């Protein structure tokens, strides 16, 4: 299981956001360059169609592959109340043949994208990961060197934390509380719930850039 | 990683494998001064495509297996023999496959038995039984040579040890013999340096062999 929130930020404010994240988390940014391939089962395979993602971490000395399955979100009145999405998620590191294997099993490439940006991994009430990245599409199949942003000038911010059925309420609380600190720069919400950029972003960013985040917002 | 040959028991035509043979094989390992070290168990599961129409089911691989190896229980190996594909994953891949619901495992085989140390060699003798059953379907042996990791370089010494083993076993006049079939690892994209993926490929290979043998026995009977 995992807890997820997302938001968008203008590219011109990303540097300020990263200063803030570094200050809040106490960790340095890590470079992020992930090729994400979304595969869908061909018609007739499985009683219902299925989707699986293959992620290739291009920042590693050797491309490192992971298979990820994202499941349904928690439902019900309780779920409606919380501002963080809680969903099932399973992943596994895999050797490099994984794409060929899934093709052989009857999965086809639905779409692929390249995420480029930064990641922060830290512990703050939960094991939290914040990624700030531009989402890019490839002009030719698998051509990661030839990618263009899907939304130029806008980057996606994602905050995720692994959770279990025993501890998800604590994880949700930790994620929500962390997100409040980011409020001057961006609004984070459940994926699929669209929000825009935040009106205070420019002022907040200016403040962060001018004194390197030393002043509390 | 030390190289390993995996052998399977080929019964003589008209005979089947039985626990007496298994017992004789174990005794043979002990008679050549094999020191019993402990138990081992590996598992192979058959994945079957869940196709909405039966006719379409043949469009999907029918030789797709998942393997869990004794020496590394947190890993899982997926092999499609016909396509010469082997993928190494974490054991969580099983949960992913379950969530996808596109393939299901109904039948699984356990390979389990005792392990023996013989100088630089490690021998494992194992029975092959379907999960949740006690009926013996086959016998396998693992022959591991600890000092060498290169498949090529180990060939001679493994061959010599294999011959020695066959000779010791032949004194017991058992109705069958062990067979070593070498998969073409290069076709699977595997290097000369031995790895768990090589072991997974050998298991997929001998399982296919054992099934083919038992099917031909059935056909002869019918």
Automatic annotation (TrEMBL), chain A:
It is found in: Nucleus. One of its GO terms (cellular component) is mediator complex. One of its GO terms (biological process) is regulation of transcription by RNA polymerase II. Keywords: Nucleus, Transcription, Transcription regulation. InterPro entries: Mediator_Med18. Signal peptide: none annotated. Belongs to the Mediator complex subunit 18 family. This is Mediator of RNA polymerase II transcription subunit 18 isoform X1. It comes from Sesamum indicum (Oriental sesame). The gene is LOC105177572.
From TrEMBL, chain B:
Pfam families: Med20 (PF08612). Keywords: Activator, Nucleus, Transcription, Transcription regulation. One of its GO terms (biological process) is regulation of transcription by RNA polymerase II. GO terms for cellular component: mediator complex. GO terms for molecular function: transcription coactivator activity. It is found in: Nucleus. Component of the Mediator complex. Belongs to the Mediator complex subunit 20 family. Component of the Mediator complex, a coactivator involved in the regulated transcription of nearly all RNA polymerase II-dependent genes. Mediator functions as a bridge to convey information from gene-specific regulatory proteins to the basal RNA polymerase II transcription machinery. Mediator is recruited to promoters by direct interactions with regulatory proteins and serves as a scaffold for the assembly of a functional preinitiation complex with RNA polymerase II and the general transcription factors. This is Mediator of RNA polymerase II transcription subunit 20. It comes from Sesamum indicum.
């Amino acid at each position: 299981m995992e807890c997820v929130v997302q938001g968008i930020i203008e590219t011109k404010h990303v540097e300020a956001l990263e200063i803030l994240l570094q200050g809040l988390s106490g960790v340095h940014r890590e470079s992020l360059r992930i090729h994400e391939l979304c595969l869908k089962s061909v018609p007739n395979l499985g009683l219902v169609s299925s989707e699986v993602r293959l992620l290739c971490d291009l920042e590693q000395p050797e491309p490192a592959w992971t298979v990820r399955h994202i499941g349904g979100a928690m439902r019900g009145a309780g779920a409606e109340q919380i501002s963080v999405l809680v969903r099932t998620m399973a992943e596994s590191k895999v050797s490099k043949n994984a794409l060929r294997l899934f093709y052989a099993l009857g999965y086809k490439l639905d779409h692929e994208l390249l995420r480029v940006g930064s990641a922060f991994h830290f512990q703050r009430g939960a094991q939290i990961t914040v990624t700030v990245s531009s989402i890019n599409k490839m002009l030719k199949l698998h051509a990661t060197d030839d990618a263009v942003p899907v939304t130029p000038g806008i980057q996606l911010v994602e905050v995720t934390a692994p959770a279990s059925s025993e501890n998800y309420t604590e994880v949700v609380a930790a994620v929500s509380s962390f997100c409040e600190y980011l409020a001057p720069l961006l609004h984070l919400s459940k994926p699929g719930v669209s929000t825009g950029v935040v009106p205070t972003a420019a002022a907040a960013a200016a403040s962060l850039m001018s004194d390197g985040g030393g002043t509390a917002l | 990683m030390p190289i390993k040959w995996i052998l399977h028991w080929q019964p003589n035509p008209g005979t089947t494998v039985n626990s007496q043979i298994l017992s004789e094989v174990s005794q043979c390992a002990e008679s050549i001064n094999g020191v019993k070290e402990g138990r081992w168990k590996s598992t192979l599961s058959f994945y079957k495509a869940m196709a909405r129409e039966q006719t379409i089911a043949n469009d999907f691989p029918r030789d797709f297996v998942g393997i869990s190896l004794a020496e590394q229980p947190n890993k899982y190996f997926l092999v499609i023999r016909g396509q010469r594909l082997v993928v190494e994953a974490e054991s969580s891949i099983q949960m992913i496959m379950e969530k996808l619901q596109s393939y299901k495992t109904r039948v699984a085989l356990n390979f389990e038995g005792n392990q023996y140390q013989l100088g630089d060699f490690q021998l494992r003798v194992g029975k092959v039984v379907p999960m949740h059953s006690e009926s013996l379907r086959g016998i396998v042996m693992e022959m591991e040579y600890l000092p060498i990791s290169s498949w090529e370089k180990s060939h001679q010494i493994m061959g010599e040890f294999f011959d020695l083993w066959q000779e010791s076993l032949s004194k017991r006049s058992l109705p069958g013999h062990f067979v070593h079939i070498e998969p073409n690892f290069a076709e699977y994209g595997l290097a000369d340096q031995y790895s768990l993926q090589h072991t997974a490929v050998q298991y997929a290979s001998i399982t296919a062999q054992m099934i083919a043998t038992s099917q031909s026995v059935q056909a002869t009977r019918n």
